[in-house]
Specification:
With 668 residues, this protein is mainly beta. Strand 26 and strand 27 form a beta hairpin. Keywords: Calcium, Cell adhesion, Cell membrane, Glycoprotein, Membrane, Repeat, Signal, Transmembrane, Transmembrane helix. InterPro entries: Cadherin-like_dom (IPR002126), Cadherin-like_sf (IPR015919), Cadherin_C (IPR032455), Cadherin_CS (IPR020894), Cadherin_N (IPR013164), Protocadherin/Cadherin-CA (IPR050174). One of its GO terms (molecular function) is calcium ion binding.
Length: 668
């Protein structure tokens, strides 16, 4: 069971910069069946010196460079790891430069020269420094490089990057030539001193130069080699921009490139056979082999496939948005956010605005990809205060799942409307004056200015002030209600006509205002005022013809009504006289047998329906009377009915004898 070293082990050849360096193995033990896993960790020893790419480095630094400027130096490489790797740098003593040692994301070290004292070419044309790289071994190993610095006349302005650090992400297995990032620097100089050339910084590792290419003219960083997420997840690339001046100015920036994993590795199944061949009488449950499944991809790319079983979920069920009226069209007002725990296309969300009101399509729009809600036109608080709509969030699964979110947009008020005077009407051509009697005491309300403001809230509060007056001491106006009062008692020597100009202001920002003119007459009787108004009335009133026609129409209608009532009265009087004459003639007749029927009495009395006639026979001064009545007839003219009665059969008549205290008068 002893594990032996079969050949010389070189940790750097086996694992390179990977730490810890380990070799894994498995041991199968039979009878009883057991599986053991083992790992041998290869520990590093300090058997490698740091190495610089070259033994000499040359820098050109302008004398105009200000103190604090940094100059990256070429990094030394040490294949050892841990404490045995490169740990620090040292710089030979000098009056101008100091050394600043920085640490990369992967833990490696690099050095930068920091100018502490400005250079002067007239005092010293060049400097020679020694940079030493030290590892952490015991004893430490080291390497040296000679740094020769030429001090030249300045190119006044060095290039400047628009940002010191750029971040980009690129999918692994991206084809060569794919754009990763575009760096940009500017130089205020003209001509060659302002032309910029982009390049990798001197301490950029060779591996980075193999994977990425930089366009020296445009600053475009593109993929050059094959990226592999499983090998390296993040690249830290140092770039520089240098102008073409005699003494080129240099600027430096850093690009962080994140490699995004793609599902480019199939699952691997490892089968360890432990019992072969299998006897035909093997009992159920006998272990035949051990299986292990691994996937080199990360995160979701290394799991079982997804099912679209989760609907999108918004961070809020409803949104309330407040927008100032008179807004600029096209502004974003809301970002609807949602998440979906599914994977891939099942988690791809799209946003749609449900058009409940067809007019909303002209007012609102939503970005389908990111849920940003835009306002397409200007809103007016006085036109509509609130808009309600629904946003549907739908995933890309099949079938798709969706969630609706309600959005309410409230239009807040701006002070964009001045007060409007309702009384006195500002556009009238006639002159109307309020009247106040002489001797009226102080505090008497004469009239009131009525105004409204279409704005809302504080913007609609109106204040009233007296701006001008014929006699400023005579009248005052209420600040908040517009009521005009007498400030003192009216005297006989006061002017008979007064004109007041009232200033109306709202409380918005900025303040909007208007004015109203009020005329007040001082008179004992209204007749005096009317006389005065007649004198000042316009000579050519366009409404006088309308008034004439209205008066003429009233006269004609009244005359027609009078004639109609007079005709009705005459007719009623005639009927009454006729009925009275018939009544008087009936009292002078003697008792007679049934004879011709005078149907006019019964009809005039109004006691019978129109399809019946009654025949009544009376005795003079008798308290008894015989009533002969009731024979039905069909509808026919009066003459035909009378003939039918006179020729009727006797059997159809019924005689009723009754008593009466008196005869009814014609009026009854």
């Amino acid at each position: 069971g002893a594990l032996l070293v079969n050949e010389r082990i070189d940790r750097e050849d086996l694992c390179g910069a990977l730490s810890p360096c380990s070799l894994s193995f498995e041991i199968v033990v039979e009878n009883p069946l057991e599986l053991y896993s083992g790992t041998v960790e290869i520990q590093d020893i300090n058997d490698n010196d740091p190495v610089f790419p070259s033994s000499q480095a040359r820098l050109e630094i302008s004398e105009s460079v200000a103190a604090g400027a940094r100059f990256p130096l070429e990094s030394a490489q040490d294949p050892d790891v841990g404490i045995n790797s490169l740990q620090t740098y040292q710089l030979s003593a000098n009056p101008n430069f100091a050394l600043d040692v920085q640490t990369r994301v992967d833990g490696s070290k690099y050095a930068e020269l920091v100018l502490e004292k400005e250079l002067d070419r007239e005092e010293q044309r060049e400097l020679n420094l020694v940079l030493t790289a030290l590892d952490g071994g015991s004893p430490p190993r080291s390497a040296h490089v000679q740094i020769h610095i030429d001090v030249v006349d300045a190119n006044d302005n060095a290039p400047v990057f628009n940002q010191s650090t750029y971040k980009a992400s690129v999918r692994e297995n991206t084809p060569s030539g794919t754009l990763v990032a575009r760096i940009s620097a500017y130089d205020l100089d003209d001509g060659p001193n302002g032309d910029i050339v982009y390049s990798f910084s001197s301490h950029t590792p060779a591996k980075v130069r193999e994977l990425f290419a930089l366009d020296s003219a445009t600053g475009e960083l593109r993929v050059k080699g094959q990226l592999d997420y499983e090998e390296t997840k993040l690249y830290e690339i140092y770039l520089q921009a240098k102008d073409k001046g005699a003494v080129p100015g240099v600027a430096h920036c850093k690009v962080l490139v994140e490699v995004v994993d793609v599902n480019d590795n199939a699952p691997e199944v490892t089968v360890t056979s432990v019992y072969s061949p299998v006897p035909e009488d093997a009992a159920p449950g006998t272990v035949v082999a051990l299986l292990s499944v691994t996937d080199s991809d990360s995160h979701d790319n290394g799991l079982v496939s997804d099912v679209n079983d989760n609907a999108p979920k918004s961070s809020q069920d409803s949104y309330d948005v407040y927008v100032l009226e008179n807004n600029m069209p096209g502004i974003p007002i809301l970002n609807v956010s949602a998440t979906d725990p599914d994977l891939g296309r099942n988690a791809h969300l799209s946003y749609t605005l449900l058009q409940g009101d067809p007019t909303f399509g002209h007012l609102f729009s939503i970005n389908r990809e990111n849920g940003t809600l835009y306002l397409l036109s200007s809103l007016d608080h006085e036109d509509q205060v609130e808009f309600s709509m629904m946003v549907q969030i739908q995933d890309g699964g099949f079938p798709p799942l969706a969630t609706n979110v309600s959005v309410s947009v409230f239009v807040t008020d701006l002070n964009d409307n001045a007060p409007t005077v309702l009384y006195p009407h500002p556009n009238t051509t006639a002159t109307y004056a309020d009247v106040v009697a002489p001797g009226t005491p102080a505090g008497h309300m004469v009239t009131k200015v009525v105004a409204v403001d279409a704005d809302a809230g504080y913007n609609a509060w109106i204040s009233y002030t007296l701006l001008q007056a014929t006699d400023p001491s005579l009248f005052s106006v209420g600040l908040h209600n517009g009521e005009i009062f007498t400030a003192r008692q009216l005297r006989e020597d006061d002017a008979p006509q007064h004109t007041l100009v009232i200033l109306l202001k709202d409380h918005g920002e900025p303040v909007l205002s208007t004015s109203a003119t009020v005329s007040i007459s001082v008179a004992e009787m209204v007749k005096e005022v009317l006389t005065d108004l007649t004198d000042v009335a316009p000579a050519n009133d366009p409404r006088r013809h309308v008034t004439f026609y209205l008066i003429l129409a009233v006269i004609l209608v009244s005359a027609a009504f009078f004639i109609t009532m007079l005709s009705v009265g005459i007719f009623k009087c005639y009927k009454w006289r006729q009925s009275k004459e018939l009544y008087n003639s009936s009292r002078s007749t003697t008792y007679r047998t049934p004879g011709p029927f005078h149907h006019i009495d019964a009809v005039r009395g109004g006691f019978t329906p129109p399809n019946f006639y009654h025949q009544v026979y009376l005795t003079t001064d008798s308290r008894q009377s015989d009533l002969l009545c009731k024979k039905p007839f069909t509808s026919s003219p009066l003459g035909s009915r009378q003939g039918t009665i006179r020729n009727g059969e006797p059997g159809l008549y019924h005689q009723i004898v009754g008593t009466a205290s008196r005869l009814p008068t014609p009026a009854e």
